[in-house]
């Protein structure tokens, strides 16, 4: 039996970085916001390496002082290691821009996500933890169009289900993708179907000085996958392998056995893991890259991984969650002020975000092209080093950064952009995905 209704301007489902960003900025504008999180923070999450361009969203959220006061490892660069174990020169973010925004952090997500959630509460959003959204309530659709969201049914721990209504419902449920799965508007990228196995280790070797906090991207011996190597506080390193599911999962042993086998056959990890001891469970994820064919509908918005997720090789996950959350919040605030919560208003930001995602996606395709080397490409085209560094830091929304893809496209097959669906009927939208 449901209890009586409560009315909000905005309901945010999910307390990760994207959801917390939306909740903070919409509450800042004076609107009544509730953020509903099914778990209880702090909790483990992967995606620990940030892009420097997160700086500007953190500044707007009031998060910079908290991050600067934290013990998170400072990240100044990213470095690539080829299949023979040869290391590239580090790509230092501050080489092109000495501003403090060129330094970012390697975060412990349990602590970082808690900080972001507390920040949303501090800015006036109601935060409910241990609260499960049983259903997103949609008004009946007319003529086959996608329906309007009007609220949710949520069950808080120890309480009866409760109906909440709102002018806008934000899906920030991560890869659970509550709305896009229900409306069948999520599309995979079949060329980037990957799996990963990962864990935390203590005692792994770090590089000295400024390079201590670098993210390392290490190719496996047969170039059929890659490792991330992310230094965290307290002598912890996050180590994970990414490859096709057929080679990483099918016919292999336990995840623990497979991860150890893959570590041993990665030349770039030789010497780094000699004294390392695993201090966490081994985790498995699969089917990385996907995107919804629209960012919003009437009364509903998708942000972060609920909208789309890219292969994690360039650590873009938190950046895209923050940026989509920020862009969406601005459109929500504008729409609430004007009394317009249509799909056109709430999704105005979608094309710009997709342009940035596509730039990163092209870099992902380049990395997975057998025989392609960023080091060799830079030696051939040193004039594009700034473009590459700009892309690696997340400065992906300026058209001029895409100049690098003209010469790169002559060496590798780059993907075509996937346009968002126009506002139309469900049948029209589905036809575009077939």
Topology:
Layout: E1 3-13, H1 17-28, E2 33-36, H2 54-61, H3 64-68, E3 73-75, E4 77-81, E5 91-92, E6 104-106, H4 109-122, E7 126-128, E8 131-138, E9 149-156, E10 162-171, H5 178-183, E11 186-188, E12 195-202, E13 215-219, E14 225-232, E15 236-243, H6 245-248, H7 255-264, E16 277-278, E17 283-286, E18 290-292, E19 296-297, E20 300-302, E21 308-309, H8 317-338, H9 343-346, H10 350-368, H11 374-380, H12 385-393, H13 405-408, H14 426-432
Parallel strand pairs: 1-2, 1-10, 2-7, 4-13, 10-20
Antiparallel strand pairs: 3-6, 4-5, 8-9, 9-10, 11-18, 12-15, 12-16, 12-17, 13-14, 14-15, 18-21, 19-20
Helix pairs in contact: 1-4, 1-8
The CATH architecture category of the largest domain equals: 3-Layer(bba) Sandwich
Number of separate strands: 21
Low-pLDDT residue spans: 424-434
> Largest sheet at a glance?
8 strands, mixed
Secondary structure tally, helices: 14
- Overall mean pLDDT: 93
Q: Helical content, roughly?
A: 25-40%
* CATH class annotation of the largest domain: Alpha Beta
The domain tally reads 2
Distance between the termini: 41 Å
- Write the CATH fold name of the largest domain: FAD/NAD(P)-binding domain
Percentage of residues in strands: 15-25%
Radius of gyration: 22 Å
Q: Can you tell me the CATH superfamily of the largest domain? A: FAD/NAD(P)-binding domain
Structural class: alpha+beta
Outline type? globular
Task: Please give a structural write-up.
The protein is α+β, with helices and mostly antiparallel strands and 434 residues long. The chain has 2 domains: 228 residues, FAD/NAD(P)-binding domain (3-Layer(bba) Sandwich); 123 residues, D-Amino Acid Oxidase, Chain A, domain 2 (2-Layer Sandwich). Helix content is 30%, strand content 24%. Strands 1, 2, 7, 8, 9, 10, 19 and 20 form an 8-stranded mixed beta sheet that branches. Strands 4, 5, 12, 13, 14, 15, 16 and 17 form an 8-stranded mixed beta sheet that branches. A 3-stranded antiparallel beta sheet has the order 11-18-21. α1 packs parallel to α4 and α1 packs parallel to α8. The two termini are 41 Å apart.
């Amino acid at each position: 039996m449901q209890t009586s209704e409560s009315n909000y301007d905005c309901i945010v489902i999910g307390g990760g970085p994207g959801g917390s960003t939306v909740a903070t900025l919409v509450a800042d504008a004076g609107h009544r916001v509730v953020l509903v999180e099914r778990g209880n923070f702090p909790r483990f999450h992967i995606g620990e390496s940030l892009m420097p361009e997160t700086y500007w969203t953190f500044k707007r959220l009031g998060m910079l002082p908290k991050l600067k006061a934290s013990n998170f490892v400072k990240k100044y660069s990213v470095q690539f290691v080829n299949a023979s174990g040869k290391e590239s020169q580090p790509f230092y973010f501050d080489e092109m821009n000495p501003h403090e925004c060129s330094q970012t952090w390697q975060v412990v997500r349990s602590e970082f996500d808690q900080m972001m959630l507390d920040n949303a509460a501090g800015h006036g959003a109601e935060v409910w933890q241990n609260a499960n959204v049983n259903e997103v309530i949609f008004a009946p659709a007319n003529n086959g169009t996608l329906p309007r969201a009007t609220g949710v049914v949520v069950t808080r721990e120890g309480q009866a289900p409760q109906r909440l209504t709102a002018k806008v419902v934000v899906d920030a449920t991560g890869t659970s993708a509550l709305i896009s799965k229900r409306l069948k508007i999520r599309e995979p990228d079949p060329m980037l179907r990957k799996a990963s196995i990962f864990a935390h280790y203590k005692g792994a070797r770090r590089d000295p000085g400024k390079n201590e906090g670098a993210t390392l991207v290490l190719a496996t011996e047969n170039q059929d996958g890659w490792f991330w190597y992310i230094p965290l506080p307290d002598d912890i390193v996050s180590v994970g392998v990414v490859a096709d599911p057929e080679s990483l999962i099918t016919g292999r042993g336990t995840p623990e056995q497979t991860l150890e086998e893959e570590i041993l056959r990665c030349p770039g990890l030789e010497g780094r893991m000699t004294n390392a001891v695993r201090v966490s469970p081994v985790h498995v994820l699969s089917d990385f890259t996907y995107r919804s064919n629209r960012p919003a509908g009437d009364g509903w918005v998708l942000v972060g991984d609920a909208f789309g997720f890219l292969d994690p090789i360039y650590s873009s996950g938190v950046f895209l969650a923050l940026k989509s959350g920020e862009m969406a919040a601005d459109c929500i605030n504008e729409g609430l002020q004007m009394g317009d919560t249509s799909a056109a208003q709430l999704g105005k930001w979608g094309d710009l975000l997709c342009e940035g995602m596509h730039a990163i996606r092209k870099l992902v395709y380049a990395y997975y092209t057998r025989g392609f080397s960023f080091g060799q490409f830079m030696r051939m085209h040193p004039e594009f080093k700034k473009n590459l560094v700009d892309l690696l830091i997340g400065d992906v929304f300026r058209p001029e950064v895409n100049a690098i893809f003209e010469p790169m496209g002559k060496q590798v097959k780059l993907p075509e952009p996937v346009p968002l669906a126009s506002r139309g009927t469900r049948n029209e939208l589905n036809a575009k995905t077939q």
